Amino acid sequence: MSAYSKELEVAQLAVQRASLLTKKVFHEKAKGTVSKDDASPVTIGDFGAQALIIQAIKKNFPDDQVVGEEEASTLRNDIKLRDQIWAFVKDTTLTDADAERIVGGPIETIDAMLGAIDAGNSAGGNKGRIWALDPIDGTKGFLRGGQYAVCLALMVDGDVKVGVLGCPNLPVDDAAPLTAQSGVDQTDAEGKGVLFSAVSGQGATSRPLGTAGLGKSKPIQMKPVEDITQATFCESVEAGHSSHGDQHAIVTKLGVTKPSVRMDSQAKYGSIARGAGDIYLRLPVSATYQEKIWDHAAGDLIVREAGGEVTDTLGRRLDFSKGRTLQENKGVVAAPKAVHGNVLEVVKEVLAKK
User: Fold this and answer.
1) Active-site residue among 22, 92, 93, 139?
2) Would you call 64 a catalytic residue per the annotation?
3) Does the 228-352 domain belong in CATH 3.40.190.80?
4) Active site residue 46
């Protein structure tokens, strides 16, 4: 067995099962009308997906820590919200019995659900085995039927070893190029739903995001960019997450004429890793903002294993060993190795003028 094969299988199945919950929440709560006293669909999906994933991790690797986004104290005081989440969690299972057994089977009680959510309280750091989890990355994308991702990565002594992204609204077809429409109105139509994975030193893959066991995987590679002026750039939808003005200045300086594709979540990392897009920039919007490790750990590994390079805007590798945030880094520049240096140079030039 190759290194981390069990961790990879558990992570893939856990993300696949959690993605089923998020899709169910979207269809039942986000689409159509949400009554005033109902919790936000994001809240229900976030808590529910976190519970399912942490249960799978703890069942298989009881001593591992998890850095998660949510904790259950609000649910202990808000019975109505707790019960809404439980209604989704207790009924979300993989249809393949063996696969469901690997992720620990259904969560059996409300207390077990709350305990699983609370187990995401690790402070992170550079010692031991720590999972970074974002149960719904791209909450606005999730709500609008655009792009979002269920993200999970295993770090060992601060180094990312396994990364998995479940992207329910990206096309299964690795060859489908990104367009201006990729970030909007993509709700799990036919041919949608992809699971990206990588293990350090073993390459990156994609496979359809299913409802049972794992489908057949295909290796993915970043696309060689022969002519940078023809490259497809990705950026965040929210101007609060990445400076659109700086991005525009950078792509203009590089001679790129195609408009940038705006989409939420780590779906951007997955998209460039398989060559559907080429370059992802996340440019600092404030001097003090620190990126969260769960927003980047899986995507960073998947892009690097697909032949890309990922650094911050100063050319430093992303450092996941400093706690819950990337406190030693500013922004993100992800690109195929051959052009990364060129892009980084222009990024530095533009940002230096500010």
Assistant:
1) 139
2) no
3) yes
4) yes
